[in-house]
Each structure stands twice: as C-alpha cells, then as structure tokens.
Amino acid sequence: MAQNDEKMKLTEADAGQLGFAMSRLTNLFTHPFFASFAKEFDLNLTEWRTLYVLDKNPDIASREVSFLSGIHVMSISRAVHGLRNKGYITETVDPDDRRRVRLNLTSSGQSVCSQIRDHADARAVRLFEVLTPEEFEALWRIEKKLTKRAIELTMGAGKAPRTQT
C-alpha cells in the first residue's frame, strides 16, 4: 500500500472507471428524488441542490452556490430563476456591493427543503450503514482530498470562494 506522500500510479482507464463509478453512485443515490419529490414539489435536481446549499449557507450569491454544489453557474442561474418563480427563494441586492445578489430561502422553501432533506438524510444513513466507522471516516477524508483536487483542477489553486460547506 502506498504511503501518504507517495502518488499512486493510475492508468487513465482505471481513473476513468472510478470516476464513472462515483458518478453512478451519485445517480443511484438521487434516483428516488426523481421518483417522488420532483413531481410533488415541482423541482428538478439542480433546484433541489440549490435549495440544499442555501439551507446550509444562507445569504450567498449564485456563484457561491455554484462552487458549493459543483454545478455550473449557468445551471444555478436557471435554477434560481425557477425557484424564485415558485416562491422558494428571495433575491436581495447586497447593500455593500450592488452587483451581488444574495439568495435566501423563503418559509415555503425552508419547508420543502426540510421535507426532502429529512428523506435524503435517512437514505444516506441506509447507504452508509454498510461501512464501519473507520471506513466512513476514511471516505470523508478521501472525499475532502478529492474535492480539493477537483477544485484545483477546475479553478486553479487558491481561487475558491471563502464560503464553506
């Protein structure tokens, strides 16, 4: 097994397969969203992810939602438009920077987010309960390391917004 300071030698095929497998896991995890909540609350997956980020990080701009969700800013912009029209979020011009628009959940948005989040969290427990506590902690460490690297590859080192997940 490789030491922490050693880099693993990967083939592009192996790395690509793991990347696809991670994407597949995400799709399988979010599948129930489409089966029930999307119709019930008239939301698409990007709108749900936007609500989730705003619930955890109120008073942020679309660019920060994009960073925290890993979703392209144009897709977030479309989601914000839809969520505003549905009455789930508000937009307020930042008095300190009039170019910046701060987003927040309305009470209706908070209610919807809470209902979906409770089901999503319960589903996450059922997914992760197959892991030992050590495996769960290792997965968290690996996720943070890979996310940091993905941000560096996407945005360049040191270019991430200050907002935290």
Question: Your description of this structure?
Answer:
This protein has helices spanning 12-41, 45-56, 62-69, 73-85, 107-128, 133-155, and strands spanning 89-94, 97-105. With 165 residues, it is mainly α. It has a domain at 21-130: Orthogonal Bundle (Arc Repressor Mutant, subunit A), CATH 1.10.10.10.
Which SSEs are present, and which pair or pack?
Elements lengths: L11 H30 L3 H12 L5 H8 L3 H13 L3 E6 L2 E9 L1 H22 L4 H23 L10
Antiparallel strand pairs: 1-2
Helix pairs in contact: 1-5, 2-3, 2-4, 2-5, 3-4
Shape: globular
Class computed from helices, strands and strand pairing: mainly alpha
Note the run of SSEs as H and E. Answer: HHHHEEHH
Strand content: 5-15%
In order across it, which strands form the biggest sheet? 1-2
Distance between the termini: 31 Å
CATH superfamily of the domain at 21-130: Winged helix-like DNA-binding domain superfamily/Winged helix DNA-binding domain
**Tally the helices: what do you get?**
6
Helix content: 55-70%
| Topology, number of strands | 2
**Biggest β-sheet description:** 2 strands, antiparallel
What is the CATH topology assignment of the domain at 21-130? Answer: Arc Repressor Mutant, subunit A
CATH architecture of the domain at 21-130: Orthogonal Bundle
Highest CATH level, the class of the domain at 21-130:
Mainly Alpha
Radius of gyration over C-alpha positions, nearest whole angstrom: 18 Å
The low-confidence runs, each spanning 5 or more residues with pLDDT under 50, are none
Overall pLDDT: 90
